[in-house]
Specification:
The protein is built from two helices and eight strands, in the order ββββββββαα. By secondary structure, it is an alpha+beta fold. α1 (about 80-90) packs antiparallel against α2 (about 90-95). It is globular, with a radius of gyration of 15 Å. It starts with a strand and ends in a 7-residue tail after the last helix. The relative contact order is 0.17.
């Protein structure tokens, strides 16, 4: 998938796939959610997310009455990426963002 956001090109075919998270639901389930974290050659982070009607990725019909499966690309800051990795892939958080963590 390709998108241009703020005059910057994000392409899942040319970026490095870093990690993925799937909630275990089948694609036909309204709760289906699949996210893949990418890093561009220039170091920018982004998520390719897709999901069913009951997820944040759902599209809404023009009249606002229906929601349905959709996919998109979302750009992430380093802090947002660190939070996503800490939640879904703690070992990768340590690999990429250990400098952001402090001992409790």
């Amino acid at each position: 998938m390709k998108m241009i956001i703020n005059k910057k090109r994000y392409d899942t075919n040319s970026a490095q796939k870093v990690a993925a998270h799937w909630n275990g639901c089948s694609r036909s389930d309204f709760r289906f959610l699949d996210e893949t974290l990418y890093r561009t050659n220039n170091g920018a982070w982004f998520l390719h997310g897709s999901g069913g009607a009951l997820t944040e990725y759902a599209s809404v019909s023009a009249d606002g009455r229906n929601r349905y499966y959709s996919e998109t690309i979302i750009t992430l800051t380093d802090d947002q990426t660190a939070d996503w990795l800490a939640k879904h892939h703690p070992a990768l958080f340590e690999e990429y963002f250990s400098h952001l963590a402090t001992d409790a």
